[in-house]
Design goal:
Blueprint: E1 20-23, E2 28-31, H1 36-60, E3 73-84, E4 87-98, E5 101-102, H2 106-111, H3 115-126, H4 134-137, E6 147-148, H5 152-172, E7 180-190, E8 193-202, E9 207-215, H6 220-232, E10 241-245, H7 249-259, E11 263-267, H8 269-278, H9 282-296, H10 301-315, H11 320-327, H12 343-349, H13 353-360, H14 363-366, H15 375-390, H16 402-416, H17 421-425
Parallel strand pairs: 7-10, 10-11
Antiparallel strand pairs: 1-2, 3-4, 4-5, 4-6, 7-8, 8-9
Length: 426
């Protein structure tokens, strides 16, 4: 019996994938088993070397070409550094000389600029990276590359320099071009310092952080210094402005001294309600809060005033301090009701919530600091936190009705006989 022959088919041979590939763009052999980031960094450095060499060819001509008309000449290479991924990386920079002086290469100047490095340091600090952990937070650049600028002291120096420059630039920024119709001022306590922040709202409903000043307490002198600084930078004080305060007597006094009758002061209704309720026992707060909410939610000034006076009379005998708190600054808590704006815009202008929200966004930034060394440090950290929060600003709720507010303020100027700069120019 014959046996059937079986032909054994060998397994299909799998083509071997080469471990290296040639990249004509940068003339670089790379290992495909290398991480993508390291590959990108090494390739990028080769591209940088090629670009710097192109700059030298443009200045000196092709190597060994002996072109006497070229004014510059090659001068070898020198150890230099460029900014890469939040650090300084060592490179060999081609040198060019002409008339006995070094000629700068445009590509190297752009890549060696420290602004990106300074911004990276500030951003890392803002997201909670400590100076000791800064180096660990950066992407790896691969073996064989020498870097520096990631030590605790180097990061700290760059952070201090960058934030101090930001603060100085912010404090010197002109306010003459801002058409402000409302101003919010509030204080923030950090350690044993009190920082007063000013937030402006322009005629379109856009918010602008105007300034920051520090002192030991929220006194009139501190507030006056802030307002004087704003005035010197172009903030107008010759026409009506809605000023929203939390009830601080020091702020109230400083605003009156600066604007006089031009200031239309609105006391924060949330702060007022909180102050009244703090004078009452727990079992009396719900009823008082309901009346306060009805009064502040009313669209008629007379009705709101009547509700508040009735509440004060009810509390007069049993809780005189609460009644006095209701009456104190009563008309200033209802200022927005006289502006005849929409209810949504009225709610936005009746409280200091806009600036309170700004302050709350700085808490996670201040939380990164365990020990405040001095006042300058506090100011820098709060300032950088405020400026970071300002990047996420949205227009004021109810901003579609801002033209009505502007018209009301300009009509008030005419009633008070305030001289406007536009009329003087005309």
């Amino acid at each position: 019996m014959k046996r059937k022959s079986c032909t054994v088919i060998p397994p299909r041979q799998v083509a071997l994938v080469p471990t290296t590939r040639h990249l004509p763009l940068v003339d670089l052999l790379v290992d495909t088993r290398t991480e993508l980031l390291e590959l990108a960094v090494r390739s990028g450095m080769k591209v940088l070397e090629a670009m710097m060499e192109e700059d030298r060819v443009a200045l000196c001509g092709v190597r060994y070409a002996h072109e006497p008309q070229q004014p510059a000449s090659r001068a070898g290479t020198v150890a230099s550094e460029v900014v890469l991924g939040g650090r300084k990386v060592a490179v060999r920079r081609p040198r060019v000389r002409a008339d006995g002086h070094e000629v700068a290469l445009p590509t190297f100047q752009a890549m060696a600029h420290t602004d990106p490095l300074n911004r990276r340091v500030v951003e890392q600090m803002l997201v909670g990276v400590t100076t000791r952990q800064y180096a660990r937070s950066l992407e790896p650049i691969g073996e064989g590359m020498t870097s520096r600028g990631t030590s605790k002291s180097a990061v700290s120096r760059r952070f201090v320099a960058q934030t101090a420059a930001q603060l100085e630039q912010w404090r010197a920024r002109s306010l003459a071009d801002l058409d402000l119709v409302a101003l919010l001022i509030d204080g923030l306590h950090v350690s044993d310092h009190c920082l007063v922040v000013a937030l402006g709202i322009d005629a379109t409903g856009q918010k602008h952080v105007l300034g920051l000043w520090d002192g030991a307490t929220e006194n009139a002198a501190l507030c006056q210094s802030l307002l004087a600084n704003l005035q010197s930078r172009g903030l107008r004080t010759d026409r009506s402005l809605l000023v929203i305060l939390d009830g601080s007597t020091a702020l109230h006094k400083a605003v009156r001294q600066m604007w006089g009758e031009a200031a239309l002061i609105q006391r924060c209704q949330v702060h007022k309600m909180r102050n009244v309720l703090d004078h009452l026992p727990e079992d009396q707060r719900a009823a008082a809060q309901a009346i306060l909410t009805r009064a502040y939610g009313s669209t008629e000034v007379a009705k709101a005033r009547r509700l508040l006076h009735d509440l004060a009379r009810r509390l007069e005998d049993a809780y005189p301090s609460a009644a006095a708190s209701v009456r104190e600054g009563l008309d200033e808590t209802l200022t927005v009701l006289t502006l005849r704006v929409s209810e949504r815009l009225q709610r936005s202008l009746a409280t200091t919530n806009a600036i309170e929200s700004l302050m709350s966004r700085t808490r996670h930034i201040k939380h990164n600091v365990t020990r405040w060394r001095h006042g300058k440090m506090i100011v820098r950290w709060v300032a950088v936190g405020v400026l970071e929060a300002a990047k996420g600003f949205r227009r004021l709720k109810g901003c579609a009705d801002m033209p009505t507010l502007v018209a009301t303020l300009r009509a008030r100027d005419q009633q008070l006989g305030l001289v406007m700069a536009e009329e003087n120019v005309a």
